[in-house]
Every structure is written in structure tokens, then in C-alpha cells.
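Hi U.,

Before I forget, here's the chain from the pilot set. I'm dumping it here mostly so it's searchable later in email.
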Amino acid sequence: MRTAPEMVQFCRDNGLGQGSMKSWDLKHFTLIEHALKSDEDVLFVFEGLHNYQSIAMHENNFAYAVTDKRIIMAQKKVLGETIQSVALDQINDITFSSGIALGVITVDTIREKFNVAIDKKQAKNVSERLHDLLIQSKQPKTSAASLSAPSNDMDQLFKLKELLDAGILTQEEFDAKKQQILGL
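Structure:
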């Protein structure tokens, strides 16, 4: 997923927040598309109210992309734009809280904290996914070569399951590799 339309569709298909109008969502994600480096992979995207303090105090809708290197936050305005990024290794913690209608995800970085508000069911989903990606980013990279020669079949299956849970492998890829390992 590298284009703005793909990112918007991913958000809508997976219930990961959405702004007030699809045309503005595309504008926000287009900023992210242009900010991506050629060697950067988008792992996950979502939308929400940035720097949320209350229903009346926030910076309106932003688009967020989690890549293999950083979280990119972007908002296209009528006049101007805002783009910010935080390296994954600069994130201390991610916290989830919920109210009546909204859930708030707090991302605590070395330099700052920012809150993102989304529908509370969607926010819980986003928070869990962010936790998984943060944990994954702090672990040593697992390469395809290391998966082909594990110490035993169970180790390889556990590694594959982690990749499936992190969204790196599809269910079909996981099932095919599992059958191969088990000789089925």
C-alpha cells in the first residue's frame, strides 16, 4: 500500500477511522504518499482527531501511516499543510482510553505526547495494532532466509504466526507455509 487511494480504502475497509469527507481523506493521505521514502514500507494506516483534548479542542482530522521506520501524521488544510513524523524507536508507549463515544490513543514519544481520538471500537482496534507493530519494531528483524532454516518446525511456525498477527503475512501465505513445514 503506497498510494493515497489505497490507504483511504484500507481505512474504510477495516474500520480504522474516517474523516468527514473522502475527498479530504485523499488529500491528507496524498501528503503521506509524497512523504514516503523509496525504501519505506507502509504497514498500517488510520485516521483520527489529532492532539485531541476534548470534543471542542483538537486539530481536526489527520491521516496516520505506520511504516517500517516511523509514524507519519499529515493534514491538508485549506491554506497549507502539516506533516510530522516520529521514528518508531522514539516511541516509549501507546495507551488506550475510552469514553462514551470516542476512544483516545496516546502515543508517548521521547519528546512529546499526542492523542488521537477515533470512534471507540475503531480506536481499540488501532491501539492493539499499534502495540503489535511497536513490539515488532523493537525485535530483531526476521528475514525470509532465517525463516527457511529454523532450529525446528515449531520455532518456524511461531515466527510465521507472529508475522501473520502483525499483518506482514496474509492468512493464505501463512497457511501455505504451514502446510509446507508440516509436510501436508
